[in-house]
Design goal:
heterodimer, A: 369 residues, Rossmann fold, OB fold (Dihydrolipoamide Acetyltransferase, E2P), 2 domains, 5-stranded antiparallel beta sheet, B: MetI-like fold, 12 helices, 2% strand, cell membrane (chain B), transport (chain B)
């Protein structure tokens, strides 16, 4: 394992940062959950902290909110050091995965809470609450109790409650994971729209790569308390800096290979090429399943830029919108995905084919990474 | 069930036989309750309308004299008011002493929580009599508490054989019940909700006042009901720590039944305690409804 703070090509430092995390470290006893984390976020940016559970993304978010104090390091918002400031002095809007609405208050009182704490007048509070509920289309439910609302409605109330105080930063802790798939898509668009409309700096914690890719300006991929890569969704997907990023964001084939001294990579008895530069020796080759083309006749010649490899079909999985072909290449398994069409020709296991894909779609990582 | 398939017709007799089993299983406890509790209470109710004869006899005549006499007698009216007031005071003191402990326990986790819970319950393993004697030793005129107060340069107050002693003793004895009731009623208190309040700008004090306290009201109501009922019906501690100088309903019932041998009057006072229980329950369910709506 390489233990660098930033392994990727992405930029963790930006011009005119609004939110700065500098050398953040968090230990629980002897266990270090965040190690030397550095991150800068621009004003108005929607940034995702993406990673599997236990990667430290929620801990990072809670440190920004002030609910956890870092063991070392500094957190600044708009130039103001907030590292030692209690959560109620930080002016941040936090939306929880479990909504965390006040069960004993109506929807309107929930949304009004933050404004009451700021000592606003009754009239001001009323107007702001109405506007915030309007933004999430829930004006008609102002008098209801949280338990009388659906999960999606509760999450929208939580969002309105966090936004109504016009926080300096909006923090979203897996806000969509308790919702069903269809609602999640709707909420994704709604959150992004509201965020753009208000131009509010937002940190979004998620373990769902689709959410991160589709909603965010930049993504911070985390693993084991370390940042693996920071970059735009396109950079993260097309230029993964580590094998972890390549396999966590999007799907990928992982095939063992050997890099020769001349730069070619051997997979079984075939040779392929890659734009990645790694040391000679054992390597891990990764290719996204939908970037591979299947040539069933085995005769079609492609340009010199493509990698070609002979394979034999071992299994077919029909997933509806895509069909997955599992190929065997000298004991390694390649999965190839194709969009389904109605008049698909039937192929049978055992059939021989040639797989081809572009050289730039070939990610190669040293086996020690 | 031997087969996985079953139709509705086969299900119906099965369900009614399940109900039959429930009745059979409930019958013993229902009988015990009927014979051991309901019949004696009815008997007490009847006795409260009988006439007491000198020397402990009971005349089987029907009269409301006990009740009218009770409600006209200044001593008994004071006794009722005093008993209710002292019990309410004990309940309040128990609540104030137990609430922080219960909140801490609610937030603790793992083995530490188990250990603390056992620690809280452990006083219940000792009889209230023994614990009362313990308090007598602690609070006596030359006891450790008085000595510490005297050593700090204050005149130690009388803490024994008066209401103060009874309140101190009963508060400690009732704390485990209060703590357990509070914890049972803290279910709605999600730490995330407190965090939400904090991030929305509430200071710890306002978080407590606006979020934690309202959400723990069900536990408070339950604990107060239980402790009030236990306090007003407690006998050993007021008897021993009151030293015959603190008059409460329970001690008076004992005196009337055992010392004066006026069983009809003792029965009337007992029924009165039951009525107070009923009133406490009515207040409790009213409070719960208010919490639910408010």
């Amino acid at each position: 394992m390489m233990h660098q703070t930033i392994k990727g090509s992405g930029v963790a430092a930006v011009k005119d940062p609004y939110l700065c995390l500098e050398g953040i470290n968090k230990k629980y006893g002897l266990i270090e959950v965040i190690s030397n984390l550095n991150l800068e976020v621009r004003k108005g940016e929607l940034i995702a902290l993406l990673g599997p559970s236990g990667c430290g993304k929620t801990t990072t978010l809670r440190m920004i909110a002030g609910l956890i104090t870092p063991t070392a390091g500094r957190i600044a918002v708009g130039g103001r050091d907030v590292t030692r400031i209690a959560p109620h002095g930080r002016d941040m809007g936090l939306v929880f995965q479990s909504y965390a609405l006040f069960p004993h208050m109506t929807v309107a009182r929930n949304v009004a809470f933050g404004l009451e704490m700021r000592g606003l007048s009754r009239a001001e509070i009323g107007a702001k609450v109405t506007r915030a509920l309007g933004m999430v289309q829930l004006e008609h439910l102002a008098g209801r109790k949280p338990r009388e609302l659906s999960g999606g409605q509760q999450q929208r109330v939580a969002l309105a409650r966090a936004l109504v105080i016009e926080p300096s930063i909006l923090l979203l802790d897996e806000p969509l994971s308790n919702l069903d798939a269809k609602l999640r898509d709707e909420m994704r668009t709604q959150i992004r729209d509201i965020q753009q409309q208000l131009g509010i700096t937002t940190v979004f914690v998620t373990h769902d790569q689709v959410e991160a890719l589709s909603m965010c300006d930049r993504i911070v991929v985390m693993k084991g308390g370390l940042i693996e890569q920071v970059g735009t969704p396109h950079e993260i997907y097309e230029h993964p800096a580590t094998p972890f990023v390549a396999s966590f964001v999007g799907r990928t084939n992982r095939i063992k290979g050997v890099r020769n001294a001349d730069g070619s990579i051997g997979i079984g008895s075939s040779l392929i090429r890659s734009a990645s530069s790694v040391k000679p020796g054992d390597v891990m080759v990764m290719v996204r399943p939908h970037r591979i083309r299947i040539d069933w006749s085995g005769t079609e010649r492609q340009g010199e830029t493509a990698n070609r490899i002979a394979a034999s079909l071992s299994r077919i999985t029909f997933v509806g919108d895509v069909i997955q072909y599992h190929f065997d290449v000298d004991g390694s398994e390649f999965i190839v995905e194709e969009s389904t069409i109605k008049s698909q020709a039937g192929h049978h296991p055992g059939k021989q084919a040639v797989l081809s894909w572009a050289v730039e779609d070939t990610f190669v990582f040293g086996a020690d990474q | 069930m031997t087969t996985a398939t079953f139709d509705l017709a086969a299900d119906v007799p099965k369900r009614s036989s399940a109900a039959g089993i429930a009745v059979v299983l409930l019958l013993p406890i229902a009988l015990v309750n009927a014979i051991g509790f309901i019949l004696p209470v009815l008997n007490l109710a009847r006795m409260s309308f009988n006439e007491a004869l000198p020397g402990g006899g009971i005349a089987e005549t029907l009269t409301a004299a006990n009740w009218t006499g009770l409600l006209q007698d200044r001593f008994y009216l004071d006794l009722i008011v005093n008993s209710v007031a002292v019990s309410l005071g004990i309940t309040l003191a128990t609540l104030l002493a137990s609430y922080p402990i219960a909140l801490y326990l609610h937030r603790a986790s793992g083995a530490w929580r188990t250990f603390l819970t056992v620690l809280v319950i452990s006083p219940l393993l000792t009889s209230a009599v023994v614990r009362t004697y313990g308090w007598i030793a602690l609070l006596a005129e030359q006891g450790p508490v008085a000595n510490v107060i005297a050593a700090m340069g204050f005149q130690p107050p009388r803490m024994m054989f008066n209401t103060t002693g009874v309140v101190i003793g009963l508060t400690e004895i009732l704390m485990p019940y209060m703590i357990l009731s509070l914890m049972a009623g803290f279910g709605r208190l999600d730490p995330k909700v407190e965090e939400a309040a904090r991030t929305l700008g509430a200071t710890p004090f306002r978080t407590f006042w606006r979020v934690i306290l309202p959400l723990t009201l069900p536990g408070i109501a339950l604990g107060c009901l239980l402790c009030f009922v236990l306090a007003i019906s407690s006998f050993i501690t007021p008897k021993l720590m009151g030293g015959g100088r603190v008059f409460l309903l329970a001690t008076e019932i004992y005196d009337q039944a055992i010392v004066t041998l006026n069983w009809p009057l003792a029965a009337t006072l007992s029924m009165l305690v039951l009525i107070i229980f009923g009133a406490a329950l009515a207040v409790y369910s009213r409070v719960l409804r208010m919490i639910d709506q408010g």
